[in-house]
Specification:
It is built from eleven helices and four strands. The protein is α/β, with parallel strands linked by helices. It folds into two domains: 2-115, Rossmann fold; 130-200, Winged helix-like DNA-binding domain superfamily/Winged helix DNA-binding domain (Arc Repressor Mutant, subunit A), CATH 1.10.10. Strands 1-2-3-4 form a four-stranded parallel β-sheet. Strand 1 (39-42), helix 3 (51-58) and strand 2 (66-71) form a beta-alpha-beta unit. Helix 8 packs across helix 10 (170-184) and helix 8 (144-154) packs across helix 11. The protein is globular, with a radius of gyration of 17 Å. Residues 1-108 form the Response regulatory domain. InterPro entries: CheY-like_superfamily, NreC/VraR/RcsB-like_REC, Sig_transdc_resp-reg_C-effctor, Sig_transdc_resp-reg_receiver, Tscrpt_reg_LuxR_C, WalR-like. The modification 4-aspartylphosphate is found at residue 43. This is Response regulator.
């Protein structure tokens, strides 16, 4: 019922097309291999292979889709595991329909999404995690333009949005994002965004 409702919601009056559904983690991985979707919404608890294990398996694919964990559970360990396994976002099932649709569109455009309720609760802990001295050094190693891109990436802007704000083509922004992730040692945009949240150096960089 939930999958059917999500399909109707996502496909109603917009550019989103649902190409497959999966009842468990094994079917999810198979569906992604078969259809190569732009975005995959993954539940945490599924029969057989759970969603977090499936996320880990999706990372082994050559070009995995942008993934967001969609669940009723918002426990800290789920968020941490999902991000460690390469998720580009974490959403709660009781989010407003417009929020879910926008999240899928943002993910497809190269953005990252994190439910504000999760962010508000986890941010104090996330800011205290990691080697902030090392992270600050890595951020300072970025060029001024790369720091601008990181600042906008950290607030969830897509490549197209970043390009529009900085007067860059989307292809150029994509190149900058790849460089930023490489320099920071981040696996994806969400990890880079969380690193930016823990480092104050970006406060002095005008994101325009």
């Amino acid at each position: 019922m939930l999958r059917r409702g999500l399909r109707v919601l996502l496909e109603s009056g917009g550019p989103i097309r649902v190409v497959a559904e999966a009842a468990d983690g094994d079917r999810l991985v198979s569906a992604v291999r078969a259809h190569r979707p732009d975005v995959a919404l993954v539940d945490v608890q599924m029969p057989g292979k759970d969603g977090l294990t499936a996320l880990r398996d999706l990372r082994a694919l050559g070009q995995p889709p942008a993934t967001a964990v969609l669940t009723t559970f918002d426990l800290d360990e789920y968020v941490a595991d999902a991000l460690r396994y390469g998720a580009n976002g974490f959403l709660l099932k009781d989010a407003e329909p417009a929020v879910l649709v926008r999240a899928v569109q943002d993910l497809a455009a190269g953005g990252a999404v994190l439910d504000p309720r999760i962010t508000a609760r986890l941010l104090p802990r996330l800011r205290s995690m990691g080697d902030t001295t090392r992270e600050a050094r890595l951020v300072r190693s970025l060029s001024a333009r790369e720091q601008q891109v990181l600042r906008l990436l950290a607030v969830g802007r897509s490549n197209a949005d970043i390009g529009a704000r900085l007067g860059l083509t989307e292809a150029t922004v994509k190149s900058y994002v790849s460089t930023v992730l490489s320099k920071l040692g981040a696996q994806n945009r969400v990890q880079a965004a969380l690193m930016a949240q823990r480092v104050s150096d970006l406060d002095d960089v005008d994101p325009r």
